[in-house]
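Ticket 4471: requesting a sanity check on a complex prediction with 2-phosphoglycolic acid. Repro inputs:
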Amino acid sequence: MEKLILVNLKMYQTDMAQIENYLNKLKGKRLIFFPMIIHLERFISHNFTCGTQNISIHESGAYTGEISAKAAQNIGASCTLIGHSEVRQNFNETDEIINQKIKISLKNKLIPILCIGENLNQYQANQTKIIIKNQIEKALKDITEPIIISYEPLWAIGTGKTPTSEEIKDIIDYIKSLFNYKIKVLYGGSVSQDNIETLNKIENVDGFLIGKAGLDVSCLTKIIEVVQK
Ligand code: PGA
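Returned structure tokens:
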């Protein structure tokens, strides 16, 4: 099975001409993009598989500033990130809200990509498995449909730091052991052209969720070459 490469563009890209240039250079590459919502249709028109970075718990109505799963699906989105640590932090998103978001995305045929991970204190206190199990149990309460998980230690996002290969393998094995179906588990957090060879050797990782390194066409091309060779 080919590994997935997901690119979370966060709120980085603000210039349309640069975006057009970026998309043209990456034409035909097997990538799944999470652009800013206002760029979603542009990415889809370039034939890329795309998702949203977040989703509302409501389908439609008087919810200024929100993103409807139904509307996203209607314009061609196929998945959505849910529970990204930046959304958890910036919007006070709880595990209960995350559970509702997963339900509404499944209802609207968007594949939910649930982001989970421990913070630095929890990592140092050796609590990673407890934290992750709790996040998964709460996020997936009353949900039986398959989803995708991205393991993203908070202390690895945007810091240039990553856990060791052994640590990532151990946590991903643990996550997979919590499911009675074959779940895809990705790794995210400071994936770059410099560490991709090492990370790609971890046998149980089903793909990568890439932030910063995904903005640079040459870094991303190197990552694609390693992962999809
Ligand atoms: P990063 O971001 O690759 O810049 O660490 C990953 C993410 O936030 O998904």
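Notes from triage: The two ends are 12 Å apart (CA to CA). Leaving this open until the requester confirms.
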